[in-house]
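[Discussion] Sanity-checking designs against the backbone

I'm trying to build intuition for which residues belong where. Below is a structure token string of 284 positions. I'd appreciate it if someone posts a full sequence so I can compare it with mine line by line.
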């Protein structure tokens, strides 16, 4: 008997009013995240009468399109994707990571790299996550320009690798000289900053710079979803955040286990900065 069947047989929750929705996940989640989501969905089906079928996006743009076109009813939206979709979605809230609802971008190099400052980036090969990744492309590019380093002319080459794990792997292989990814606090103290590289064995990095704070990902429903369905999703996430076993699954999927309802500050500022930078040709 699998986890879903065990939950169903051990619960007395009525399934007479079950609702089935599609949940869009951020680009290319790994197998462990997908397995954890399936366990979380099983818990929610049993305890909230809501069936969530996952849809794993191949890119951030694919995720946005799936929501806009109605292929995803609920989605875990990185902040730039939310910026693109703001008028098309209703935010439920964010999953706090270690009590925090913001994070940072980091530029990292191999530990023994000769690159020591932003000025040393001229002629370097840049590795990025995705054109719509806040920490893995958008924010570093905006902040480099603010620091007087023009990212449109500084790098010898630039390439997208799809995920934070993949761009760090590319850095470890020597396929790029600097990588953009996410970092956790403390921002500004490069020696003690933690980030995505802590989750990847065999890649030793040095933090060149950090930029933040970036508002965390948003869990949202498409704007034209029925209000009753919206409320069922909110109720399911509330229940999961209040249950010890389900919180472990929330952490495995989203990296945090505390639901902060509503929209965290910072999203409007990020949207405006992104729009200005786009208008100025920074993302051409």
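Best answer:
Here's mine. Compare freely.
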């Amino acid at each position: 008997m699998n986890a879903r069947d065990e939950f169903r047989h051990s619960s007395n929750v009525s399934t007479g009013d079950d609702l089935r929705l599609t949940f869009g996940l951020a680009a290319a989640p790994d197998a462990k995240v997908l397995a954890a989501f399936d366990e979380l969905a099983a818990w929610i089906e049993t305890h909230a009468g809501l069936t969530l079928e996952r849809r794993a996006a191949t890119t951030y743009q694919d995720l946005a399109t799936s929501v806009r076109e109605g292929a995803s009813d609920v989605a875990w939206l990185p902040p730039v994707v939310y910026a693109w979709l703001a008028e098309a979605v209703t935010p439920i809230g964010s999953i706090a990571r270690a009590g925090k609802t913001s994070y940072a971008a980091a530029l990292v190099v191999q530990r023994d790299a000769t690159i020591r400052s932003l000025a040393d980036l001229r002629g370097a090969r840049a590795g990025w996550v995705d054109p719509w990744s806040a920490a893995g492309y958008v924010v570093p590019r905006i902040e480099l320009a603010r620091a007087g380093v023009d990212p449109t002319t500084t790098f010898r080459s630039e390439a997208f690798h799809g995920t934070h794990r993949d761009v760090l792997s590319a850095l470890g292989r020597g396929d790029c000289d600097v990588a953009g990814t996410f970092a956790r606090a403390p921002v500004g103290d490069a020696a003690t900053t933690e980030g995505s590289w802590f989750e990847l064995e065999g890649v030793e990095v040095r933090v060149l710079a950090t930029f933040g704070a970036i508002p965390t990902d948003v869990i949202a429903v498409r704007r034209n979803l029925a209000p009753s369905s919206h409320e069922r999703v909110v109720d399911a996430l509330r229940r999961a955040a209040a249950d010890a076993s389900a919180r472990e699954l929330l952490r495995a999927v989203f990296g945090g286990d505390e639901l902060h309802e509503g929209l965290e500050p910072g999203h409007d500022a990020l949207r405006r900065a992104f729009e200005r930078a786009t208008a100025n040709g920074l993302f051409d």
